[in-house]
């Protein structure tokens, strides 16, 4: 064994011990290339989801039914922008470039959560997105606060606190509508019918179809499998639906005393694959909107870069 090989083996062992002891890998630490690539992929796809996720609800900011609802929705959508920015920064600690990640999002080389390719058709959707979409995001993200990659884990702690505000604002909006007119109650039920199944798809393909899960669990960048998290979400949502007085659109949904969990129907995986492949109801719109935002903001980035260059010049004198 050469000296370099010996040093690499030592580093590899140190990396494995860090993970074994549930300690964090930090940007300065040696890490296997596969781990670095997996983390860049996971963190940037998460960042893209936060940024694209601003669109379905952002659409309703100018049409919110009251000043109070508008202020709440603005704050929520701004939080999502903040989440995207923390996460792009976390990806940068691994050597990724934010502009490059944005280009990959726009070119379709990198994905974002399939859920944001569905339209928000009524104001009840704002409530259902908060309740179910942010609720599913919390199930996915709370375990990520213990991700083995330090900057990601720390970003997730703050993000999860804000997500729980998002979930509650959605639930509170729905509760208000359910106490309103029968037309409002119908709107909530109709929005629930449209979002329930796509929300279950947010946990990704079934475990048997999820090739990266085993490696991600071994690296402790993932703590539970897709099916475990999906089950947890279903179990959590049923009593919430009861409290609201809405019906979840699944005739197979039933308590299974033996398993201690709710049974539920089969997801439409063909639809999931279609949406992931870019053929969901809003994929093209979402990307076109993101591309326009990037192009329209070019002058701001250029001005900031010119200012930074001028400042650096002044410092050198
Ligand atoms: Fe978020
Ligand atoms: Fe959120």
Automatic annotation (TrEMBL):
Coiled coil: none annotated. It comes from the Bacteria. GO terms for cellular component: cytosol. One of its GO terms (molecular function) is phenylacetyl-CoA 1,2-epoxidase activity. Pfam families: PaaA_PaaC. One of its GO terms (biological process) is phenylacetate catabolic process. NCBIfam families: PA_CoA_Oxy1. This is Ring-1,2-phenylacetyl-CoA epoxidase subunit PaaA. It comes from Tamaricihabitans halophyticus.
